[in-house]
Amino acid sequence: MRFLYSLAWWLALPLVVARLWWRGRKEPGYRAHWAERFGFYRGSAPRQRMIWLHAVSVGETRAAEPLVTALLQAYPERDILLTHMTPTGRATGQALFAKYGGRVRQSYLPYDTGWMVGRFLRHFAPRVCILMETEVWPNVMAQCARRKVPVALVNARLSERSLVKAQRLSALMKEAARAFSCVAAQTDADARRLRQFGAPNVHVTGSIKFDVTPDEAMLARGERLRAQIGTRPVLLCASTREGEEALILDALPAVDMADALIVIVPRHPQRFDEVARLIEAHGLSLCRKSMLGDAPVPTEIRVLLGDSMGEMFAYYAACDLAFIGGSLLPLGGQNLIEACALGKPVLIGPHTFNFATVSEDAIAAGAALRVADAGAMLREAARLLHAEHERLVMGVSAEAFARQHRGATQRTMKLLKPLLD
After folding, report:
1. What confidence tier does 393 reach under pLDDT thresholds 50, 70, 90?
2. Hey, is 106 helix, strand or coil?
3. Residue 316: what are its φ and ψ, rounded to 5°?
């Protein structure tokens, strides 16, 4: 099965390269560092056996921050190799970890063929491989096993949908899953599904995302943005995905929110211009965060487009209420923990299967409310923005919910210790 899988990769490579170049039209980062994606690297190999941590994109990279910090503190003689698959993930890693200087080195993970992954492992010779959240690459696992590089899956989650998909390739994926040295699952449900998947040595450690905390500079940036907005109530639509902005904007005329500012922050930066055109097509006055500078947001502006990278904590700090995107359409939802950590009430749509347990727990804790569709979300937002006491109670519950679930980083470090010592 793995031979056929590898053959499929080689046959698909021309299409993969064409798609990479095509995506580079909107996001130039896809046309940079091409050699790394095929297992070729400039410069000499590292002198020491590094700790390799793979974080696919923005969400995984931000979630990895507490773990990266803990690893660097616990192992001062070792550096970290941080790999990604997307340019936005790489840019996020650069922004988060530049403060560590040369101790955090970045690269793209090559495509999952045995030859390319083998070149990657020969060049970097990592001591251990740590994969974030849901990454299971058959040739990565096989090549690591061949070179006796232990592999850990941390902050691991596996939805019922993903389990069903993986079981369709049972022989291939179970071989890969069995190669894990250990797995740190976010929840009991994730652990159960990961064991069904074939992973051994599965432990429940919680979500590292609860340990992510904003730095003071980001909070100060949020305070400045709030001062620029003024006293208007603010609804933040965070990490919206394609199709969701249209649903929200279509539903807006039927809801009395003329006094509120709506801040929309698309999940993917390559969509900023597209969403700006969509807002203008709906006849709404628009201001882009990148064009705002130090000026106040004019009172006639209905929508502020958050077209800046790495500032999500600032947007949360500036808002009164947050809707978490990816949940109005069957996309699985996005992370609501950051909003809760800043004591912001949360609204989520019906589709949160990627974060099922944490979403239900947040609702049970009084930190979040689930809505049926975009219209219901806007109606509930309009109500809460004018119900100060209820909103403040939800905010206190959200902060308490985030605080009580912290500690996953240290539990994960304890699980990783035998692989690192």
Report:
1. very high
2. strand
3. -60, -40
403 band by pLDDT with thresholds 50, 70 and 90: very high
Q: What is the pLDDT of residue 37?
A: 94
Instruction: Give, to the nearest 10 degrees, the angle between helix 138-146 and helix 170-177.
Output: 40
- Name the residue type at position 116: M
Which residue from 19, 333, 283 is spatially nearest to 157, judged by alpha carbons? 333
Sorted by sequence, the CB contacts under 8 Å of residue 210 that are 6+ apart come out as: 337, 341, 402, 405, 406, 407, 408
Q: Which residues are catalytic?
A: 60
Kindly state the tokens that stand for 99: 């403060």
Each residue's pLDDT tens digit, 206-251: 999 999 988 899 999 999 999 999 999 999 999 999 999 999 999 9
| pTM reported for the whole predicted model | 0.88
User: Which domains are seen in the chain, by residue range?
Assistant: 24-207+406-420 (3.40.50.11720), 216-404 (3.40.50.2000)
Helical H segments across 75-187, by residue range: 87-97, 114-124, 138-146, 160-168, 170-177
- Which residues is 369 bridged to in the sheet? 347
Two tokens at 169?
Answer: 């390739």
Amino acid at 371: V
Instruction: Output the CA angle 360-135-166, nearest 5 degrees.
Output: 80
User: Angle of helix 244-251 relative to helix 272-281, nearest 10 degrees?
Assistant: 20
CA distance 375 to 253: 10
Tokens of 289: 């965060």
